[in-house]
Amino acid sequence: MELTYITLSTKVNQLLTKLNVMGKDLYNGVGFDASSIILCENQDIVNLVKDRTDVVCFYLKTGTIELSLEKMVLLSYVAQDFIIPPVDAFSQLSLITKNSQVELVPITYQDVYSATKKDMQKSQLWNRFLTFHVSVLIEVIGVYSRFKMNWRYNIEQFQSGEIVIKQGDEAQNAYILLEGKADVCVNGHNIGHIQTGEIFGAIAVVTGNKRNADVIAKTNCKILKISKNDFFKFLGYYPKFSSRIIDDMAKVINRLNLSLHDEQS
Q1: Residue 36: what are its φ and ψ, rounded to 5°?
Q2: Which residues pair with 44 in a beta bridge?
């Protein structure tokens, strides 16, 4: 089967780098004792993920696994990466092993709870790690959407200093930054940056909340503006892949937080 490999945005690569650093800190600091699972080449592990409802993530010890949808590879996991399974969201996805021997280590909710219940910094690191993984999946969805949907005629130009999104406004569009750079500001304070290839403004569209930050063009920008209707068309094509990823990962974070709260009380 011939596959198409998408080009990851700068933002995705930055998030993946941060994930790798956090993942190594988490794994080396805990030392999980679970037995490894050995898989063969071209094996789809989606069913394995579905069967392991006690697992919060898998640590990929050796080999490569590709996350794909409709013959398009969205993301490649390599040795020392974590694979976090939002179970319901994987019904239309494939996770295919690419080596003759792939070794996975399952990490359960109990493992994480035991490792973090007395270490608040470690607990916060796990939460940040899970949140970063959500961000990676959202960014990958944005890249994939450019291949799937026809939004060629919704490209707009913004001059340096021009407001793209205004804090407090209703969320009517999601955006992809095609060229240039933009700043994210809350109450006049710069809190982050948006790089070429990054999708932004999507969460407020999904949740229906008002914008919680300004986005201001730092340089002259070319931006793909996706109307709420068009964005939900994409969610309509792949509702489990898009919206349930966010929902399921939020539940993971909430479950870990509740465990820690129960222990402290």
Answers
A1: -75, 155
A2: 96
